[in-house]
Amino acid sequence: MAVISVTSPKGGAGKTTTATVLSTILAERGQKVILIDADPNEAVTRWASRTEVAPPNLTVLPVANEQKFVSQLDELTGRAEFVILDLEGRASRTVANATALSDFVIIPVKGSQLDAEQATRHIELIHDQERVIRRPIPFGLLFTQTHPAITPKTQAFVAGAFKDNGEPVFSVQLCEREAFRAIFSFGGTLAGLKGKGVGGLAKAIENADAFVDEFLARLAGGSERAAA
């Protein structure tokens, strides 16, 4: 069972979209997935309450309280190939424990200096947890809500700064697509939006598949810091 945390200290960075897209694509590929809603905004829980939400091998669960969170993950061992955590956007005991228990951490980040600074805060938390548990915690920075054809100078500067510091940045970005917003209106998966008049759906599905492919490659490769 692989535990995957999707986290950023900054609100609006795309955590819930990333976690939901990753979970649904993996489930559609036949993997058993448990998606845990650990964000007080409960966007995943609301999404899961809508009809035709997900493949039958995707389960959405609320997070246990901070005192029981580690036990909750222990109890899920063997029930799924992937446990994906949509974490809250603040430093907390749950976030720290989730980071320490993760096989991979995805840090969504938009192409702004404010987002970059907050992402750097979580990288520091990862390094702190690595020292506590005495093992590397593989992670990757994922640019979200980007333009599919144009890279603004600020985004290019931020991405270059991360790479200059040796931080792993996903080659694939989750672009700004209507379909990524529409799944939270209609419920279900990207594939389930077919026939509902959502613009650019094919491109969104292609984008999501490419992201999941790269995620799986990075997960299999372990720590990507040296290779990214």
Protein topology:
Blueprint: E1 2-6, H1 15-28, E2 33-38, H2 43-48, E3 58-62, H3 69-75, E4 82-87, H4 93-101, E5 104-109, H5 113-133, E6 139-146, H6 153-164, E7 174-175, H7 178-186, H8 201-221
Parallel strand pairs: 1-4, 1-5, 2-3, 2-4, 5-6, 6-7
Helix pairs in contact: 1-8, 4-5
Give the distance, in angstroms, between the N- and C-terminal Cα atoms. 24 Å
Report the total helices. Answer: 8
- Give the averaged pLDDT, no decimals: 90
Tell me, briefly, the overall form. globular
Number of strands: 7
Order of the strands making up the biggest sheet: 3-2-4-1-5-6-7
Share of helix, binned: 40-55%
Provide a compact summary of the structure:
This protein is an alpha/beta fold and 228 residues long. The chain has 8 helices and 7 strands; from the N terminus they run E-H-E-H-E-H-E-H-E-H-E-H-E-H-H. The chain has a single domain (2-221), classed as P-loop containing nucleotide triphosphate hydrolases (Rossmann fold), CATH 3.40.50.
Textual characterization of the structure:
Helix 2 links the parallel strand 2 (33-38) and strand 3. The longest helix is centred in the middle third of the chain and has 21 residues, at 113-133. A seven-stranded parallel β-sheet has the order 3-2-4-1-5-6-7, sandwiched between helices. The chain has helices at 15-28, 43-48, 69-75, 93-101, 113-133, 153-164, 178-186, 201-221, and strands at residues 2-6, 33-38, 58-62, 82-87, 104-109, 139-146, 174-175. Helix 1 (15-28) crosses helix 8 (201-221) and helix 4 packs across helix 5. By secondary structure, it is of the alpha/beta class. It is built from eight helices and seven strands; from the N terminus they run βαβαβαβαβαβαβαα. Residues 223-228 have low confidence and may be disordered. The chain has one domain: Rossmann fold, CATH 3.40.50.300.
